[in-house]
Amino acid sequence: MDVTQAVTSRRSIRHFLDKPVDPAVLKQVLETARRSPSGGNTQPWNAIVLTGQPLADFTAEMKRRVAAAPKGGETEYDIYPEGLEGRHERERVGVGESMYGALEIAREDKAARIGQMMRNFDSFGAPVQLFTYTRKYMGPPQWSDMGMWLQTIMLLLREAGLDSCPQEIWAQWGLDVKELLGIDDAHIFFCGMAIGHRDPAHAVNRFDVSRASLDETVEWRGFGG
Ligand SMILES: Cc1cc2nc3c(=O)[nH]c(=O)nc-3n(C[C@H](O)[C@H](O)[C@H](O)COP(=O)(O)O)c2cc1C
Question: In whole angstroms, what is the distance from residue 185 CA to residue 71 CA?
Answer without folding.
Answer: 23
